[in-house]
UniProtKB/TrEMBL annotation:
GO molecular function: 2-alkenal reductase [NAD(P)H] activity
Enzyme class: oxidoreductase
Domain of life: Eukaryota
Protein known as: NADP-dependent oxidoreductase P1
Sequence ranges assigned to domain Enoyl reductase (ER) in this UniProt record: 52-334
EC identifiers of the protein: 1.3.1.74
SUPFAM superfamilies attached to this UniProt entry: GroES-like (SSF50129), NAD(P)-binding Rossmann-fold domains (SSF51735)
Keywords attached to this entry: Oxidoreductase
InterPro entries hit by this protein: ADH-like_C, ADH_N_2, ER, GroES-like_sf, MDR_fam, NAD(P)-bd_dom_sf
Amino acid sequence: VVIKHQFEDAPKESNFEIKTGVFSLSVEPGSDDIIVKNLCISIDPYQINRMKSFSSSHHTISFAEPITPGEAIDGAVIGKVVASGNAKFQKDDLVLGVFTWAEYSLVKEGNIIKKIESSEFSLSYHLGVLGFNGLSAYAGFFELCKPLKGEKVFVSAASGAVGNLVGQYAKLLGCYVVGCAGSQKKVALLKEKLGFDDAFNYKEEKDLNSTLKRYFHDGIDIYFDNVGGEMLNAAIANMKAFGRVAICGVISEYTDDTKRASPNMLNIVYKRINIRGFLAADFLNVFEDFSAKTSDYLRTGKLKVIEDVSSGVESIPSAFVGLFNGDNIGKKIINLAEE
Ligand code: NDP
C-alpha cells in the first residue's frame, strides 16, 4: 500500500494505491536480508503526520520519517520469517517489527523489534494491549499522571486502542472514570462492558465546558488526552488544582491544522496544572513491569480486549481513513494471513 501523493486534510481512500509486483522469496546466505510473510498489521493515527505536506511549513515535527509517495508505507507489523540470510533469525520465527504494509516484506535485522516467543495470547495483542498502545496507556497514566485511588479521571477517544486501556487501568486502581467517544454504541461499550463510571458522546454536546462540569462537579484530577483541540481546552478549564494532563495524542488536530488547542494559560498557572506530552518509546524501562501486570490482568479476565479487525491488504486504506471518522471500535488490526 502506498500514498499517491502527500495531502493536507482528512485522508481519503483515493489518496492510497495498492501496487502489486513479483517478489523473490529467496535470500543470499550470510546477507542481512530477511523475508517476512506479514500476518497482522497495526493501523495507527500517527501515520497521517508522515503523509502530510504541511507539517514542515507549520513547524510540526514528526518522530518518524515522512512517507514517500509511491513507496510502501511502513509501520508496526507481526510476521513470520520465510527466509533469512541472517543466522539470528530462522524460518518460521514470529517477529514484530517495522515492516511494510504489504503481504511480504524484505527487512533487515534493524527493522525487527523482537521475536515473539510465547503464543499464550492472540498474536495481535502484541500490536495493541501488550504492545505500544498498551505501553502508552500504562506509562502515560501511571508514570506521568501518578494516579491515586479515588481520583477523578477523564479520558478522550475512550473507546479507542489507547483510551479504553487507560480507562480500564484507572478503574482497576479504584479511580472514578468518565470517557468520551463519538457514538452511542461506543458510550454503551464503555459503561456496560468496560466498567467506566460514566461516558458521553461528545458529538452530541454543544458546550464541552459545561458538559465536563456535569460529570465532574468538583473538577478533574487527571485528563488523559488523545484528541487535543476543544476537548483539551474544556478539560483544562475543569481541572482541579495540582491536576495532571497527559498529552498522548491530538487526533482532532491531525486533519485540521487550524484547530490547535489554546487552553487558558492563567488556569494552568493558578491551578498549578502539570501538562506533559510523551511517547511510549520513552518508557521502555517500564515495559517489563507493564507487560507482566497486563498479562496477568488478561489471564484473570480483569482487562477486556477490544479489537476491530479487517482482512486483506485491500482493506488497509479504508481502515486507516476510518480512524479519522471514528469507524473503529478498539484497536484497529488488519489480518493478512493465519499463523
Ligand atoms: P484510536 O483507536 O483511538 O482511533 C482513533 C479514534 O479517535 C477514532 O476511533 C475516533 O473515535 C477518535 N477521533 C478521530 N477523529 C477525532 C476528532 N476529530 N475528534 C475527536 N476524536 C476523534 O487510536 P489510538 O488509540 O491508536 O490513538 C489515540 C491517540 O493516541 C491518537 O492521538 C494517537 O496519535 C495517540 N497515540 C500516541 C502514542 C504515543 O506514544 N504518544 C502511541 C499511540 C497512540 P471517536 O468515535 O471517539 O471520535
